Amino acid sequence: MRLAPLLLMVCVGCAGAAKPESQTAESIVRSQTAPRTLVDAATGKSIEAEAFFAVLRTKRVVYVGERHDQPGDHGVQYAILRQLHREEKSLAIGMEMFQTPFQEPLTKWSAGLIDETVLRRETEYDKRWGFDFSMYRPILEYARNRGIEVVALNAPREVAYAVAKDGVDSLSPEQTSALPELDLANERHRALFDAEFDEGEHAVGDAVDQYYEAQVVWDETMGSRVAETLGRQDGPAKMIVFAGRVHVKRGLGVPDRGAKRGAAPYAVVLPVTDKELKAELKRAPEERSADFFWAVGR
Predict the structure, then answer these.
(1) Is residue 269 assigned to a domain?
(2) Could you give phi then psi for residue 271, rounded to 5 degrees?
(3) Among candidates 48, 32, 60, 19, which has minimal Cα distance to 226?
(4) pLDDT (tens digit, 9 = 90+) per residue, 43-65?
């Protein structure tokens, strides 16, 4: 059994238009400021940035989804981070891009004790994540320069891949004991997964079920990490979380699984193209993918 469908599923919607030659991915991230268009999913109407951030101020967790290889999406994350931190200094950043066994180097990074080369080496970033680091550099440098806690959210790759290959029941007792409680019976989440899943490798039957179990391992691990961070005695007042779209859409992945552990209230923001925004607004409000849509281009 091959794991390509699992990897493709995680990156659903990653592809996008090429950036102009005069710009780098990092410069696109750094240049993002005010949104061109912001839409409140509940009403389907545009909302001013001031009103948008007023809502976010009332939330304990703000999830900003991403297509991993799109600098415009990371620019939205960077812009929201800066604004939220101006208004709430007790803020932590949760990142799917780093796996839970590698929290220590992230803690050292936020304390200014290591440089980028050491961070990438000690988190095994290039091996375990591998997307262009320059798109995350502005976010991470902002955190380091201000002593903001950065939290590794993701499950160890070895565990997720083992589940995708052979199912949750194949894990060792040690691996199982390290996992949070897994809710595999959420029908709305499973329906979303089935709609997003790439079946290019013709996975069927038990294989699809195992990929879904791996998705739940990711989502429950990240949700539990968010809740644990906020629940600490010395924890932050608010978190902003950066994760792939499929993990936050409709709140059915990480947000709801964090909320059931106390990480609430929350809001989900999705960077979208104009075409995607039009498609979202054709849906009933309760079926839209986020609470707010931030248009990032065609």
Answers:
(1) yes
(2) -70, 135
(3) 60
(4) 999 999 999 999 999 999 999 99
